[in-house]
Every structure is written in C-alpha cells, then in structure tokens.
Write a structure and sequence with these properties.
The structure is a homodimer of 205-residue chains.
Chain A lengths: L4 H16 L6 H8 L3 H7 L3 H27 L3 H18 L9 H7 L4 H23 L5 H25 L3 H17 L17
Helix pairs in contact in A: 1-2, 1-4, 4-5, 4-7, 5-9, 6-7, 7-8, 8-9
Chain A binds a DNA duplex (30 and 30 nucleotides) through helix 3.
Chain lengths: 205, 205
DNA sequence: CTCCGACTAGATAGATCGCTCTAGCGAGGA
DNA sequence: TCCTCGCTAGAGCGATCTATCTAGTCGGAG
C-alpha cells in the first residue's frame, strides 16, 4: 500500500493532462495507467471527468507552487531562487523529452471556452500563484502593486516559454525567460536586498 | 461564392482549434460549421485530421504574423507598434468573450507530445515569428543576437499572458505583458530610434 | 454530343468516448 | 457469526469519433 488507488488516479491523470490535455486523455487510459478498476474511478469521482479534472488542476497547481517555494527557499536570495527555478524547469523539460512543463497550461487553454468549472479551477490556481509569489516579493520591500505585476510577469514568461520550448524541443525560450525574470526581480528589489551575482543584465529587460 | 469550400473549412477549423484545441474539435463539427459536405473534407485533405491540422497551423500562424506586421507598420515607431499590438490583442480578447487569443497555442501544447507532424508545424510557425520579429528589431540597429532574444521575450510574454487572460477572463496579465514588452524594446533600441512617449517604465522591466 | 475529373453528398464501418450498472470481495463492528 | 459498507471489478450502453465508401452532380474539353 504505497499509495492509495485514489492518489494513483490523481497522479497519473495529472501526468496525462500535462502531456495530452483534458480532451486528449481518456477515462480508460487513466484507469489502465493507474492500474485501477474502472468502478473505482466513478466511486471516488462521482462527478465524472469534470470533477476529476477540477481535483487534478487544484492538486497539480498546489504541488507545482510548493516546488517553486522549495527551490526559492533553498536559495541564498530571491534572485538566485528564481534563477534556480527556471534552470530546474529547463532541466526537467530536457530530461522528460519536453513533456513535463506546466501541469495545468494545456488544460487551461483547452477548457477556457468550454467548461466553466474547469476554467474557474485553472483561474484560481493562477491567481493563487500570483498572490503567493507577489507576497514573497513584497516581503523583500517591493510595493504591493509592483510586486503583483512582477509576479504576473514571471508567470507570463514562464508559461509562454513552456509553449515555445515544448513546440521547438529546445530550452532556448526558457533560458530567455529565466534571464528576463531574473532581471525584472533584480530591478524591482531595493538595492540592499540583491547581492547581485554577475551574469544577468543589470538594466533593461 | 464568396469563399471556396476549402477556404471555408480552413477558416472555421482555425476558429475551432483556437477555442477548443485539436482533440477537442471533431470532423463533424467542422463540416457543420463550414456548411461543407463531409466528402469534401477528405477530398481536400486526404491525410485526414492531421493534414488539415498542419495546414491550419501554418495558415493561422502566417495570418497572425501579418496582423502583427500591419499594426506595427501603421504605427509611427516600433515601440508604439508593439504597444498597439498588445492593446489590440486585449481588445479582441474582451470582445470575443476571451475566446480569440493565439491561434496555435492551444494546439501546440496538445500535440507537442503526441504528433510529430503537428508539433513540427507549430515549431516552424514560432520560429518564423521569432526570425521575422528579430529582423524588424535588428533593422532598428539592435545586434542580431539581442534582437532574437528580444523577439523570443515578446512572444513569451504574449503567449503566457494569453493563457492567464483566458483562464481568468481578465486582461490584467496581457496589460502587464504589454508594458514589459514595450519596456524591453525601449531598452534595447539605440537612444535615437525611440521617440519615447511617456507612460512606460524607462528601465527595469 | 460524350467523356472525364473535380467536387458534392451522406450513409456507414469500426473503434473509442464518457458513463452506468450489477455483482462481489473483504475488513471491522455488533 | 453475520451484516455493513468502502471499494474492486468489468461488462456493456448509447453516443460520438475518424475515416472510408459508393453514388451522384456539374462544368468544361474534345
């Protein structure tokens, strides 16, 4: 009993959604990959595919932000943390043959115009990422409004780079995004808070 | 006979792909929306859904870049052009109930790990956007390598903002992306080339 | 005129879709 | 012991999926 059937279903569904999206993932495919009986799926998620989707989105969103926090907290300062996070995302992308990028982006685009419950779940995840990231930035002395805009910008470049990188099977876009995110954070922080290793552009993007 | 059956099929498929993605769009749905007979679909695209997809991706990518060029060329300078483009994208998003964003992003994420021909088509469109945008930037005196990185950054923030904006049904992320793109272009341009209206941050992001 | 190829038209095959249903297993409580 | 109930197990339903197939329409070339 390493993991419960329910958790196994959620885990493999998250994987499948990330790579093939919501409509591209079948219920049969899920139970097969999770080694779970079909009946269990509808026992745990009586609302069907939509309920399962909402749960997976919330869970994946939470886990991904915790990964971000872990990496940032392990770094000596915020700028280094952001750098490490983008570098890690690029490494994962290469190691997984450009399959594992954002856990919810594919689903978010697919369902934005076709399922309100799913759309709302993705919106809540993004908003939570924004608020929590902005909070961390603000804790370094950046005014709230600017902190929020900075958080949005970081997520913007990350998500956009994931699209380009997966399509081109190259991390070039992610590298550019990382540099831009680092520069933006550096520029926003009060001078004292940023030890500023060399390498990143000090001004401009 | 305003448009040929083939063009009508391509047009409505582009619309459907943009909103519901590749797997989320059915062949029946396409012929119904295009008011075309089913047989015509396989007459014009014997390779089936995949061939149709490749054609739609190329065509949509080309048309979208032409839109970008039209807007930029109509503006007095590059910075204004970029500003107008992001503002236009935000307006379209609001007017279409957050349905019409990037014509290929949804498909790009869906097919990246499941169809090589489709993945390649999206990669070629993105690369063409990068090269042509970089060319325009370089024409203003920016070194080639920096111009390419700037082009990638602009596409990064645009695509990322489209995800967030469609999910949250708000253009906040797109506004942030626009400001960042403007600031990046302004910072990269030699001082002479940018008339620099006020409003955008002069340095930092 | 005839003939031919481009295109229209839609029925239908075969697989897969999400989902429902009934049956049974097996551990814990009465 | 027996019953209950959370969960397993998978057959199967109707709908829908992509794709194929045959038949028919229509305009232009010879």
């Amino acid at each position: 009993m390493p993991t419960s059937t329910r958790d196994r279903i959620l885990d493999v569904t998250a994987d499948l959604f990330r790579q093939h999206g919501f409509t591209g993932t079948g219920m049969k495919q899920i139970v097969t990959a999770a080694n779970a009986p079909f009946g269990s799926l509808y026992h745990f998620f009586p609302g069907g595919k939509e309920e399962l989707g909402v749960e997976v989105i919330r869970r994946s969103g939470e886990m991904y932000f915790e990964l971000f926090e872990t990496i940032v907290d392990a770094a000596p300062d915020l700028v280094s943390g952001v750098r490490d996070f983008f570098a890690g995302a690029a490494a994962v992308l290469r190691e997984t043959d450009y399959a594992d990028a954002c856990p919810i982006a594919t689903v978010a685009l697919e369902v934005a115009s076709s399922s309100e419950p799913l759309r709302q779940a993705t919106a809540e995840v993004f908003e939570s990422w924004i608020i929590r990231t902005a909070g961390r930035v603000a804790a370094h002395g950046v005014p709230n409004e600017e902190a929020r805009r900075l958080a949005i910008l970081i997520i913007n470049v990350l998500e956009g780079a994931f699209i380009l990188s997966r399509a081109s099977r190259s991390t070039e876009a992610l590298d550019v995004a990382g540099d831009a995110a680092i520069a933006a954070v550096q520029a926003a922080l009060p001078a004292s808070s940023s030890p500023s290793r060399d390498g990143a552009r000090p001004e401009g993007w």
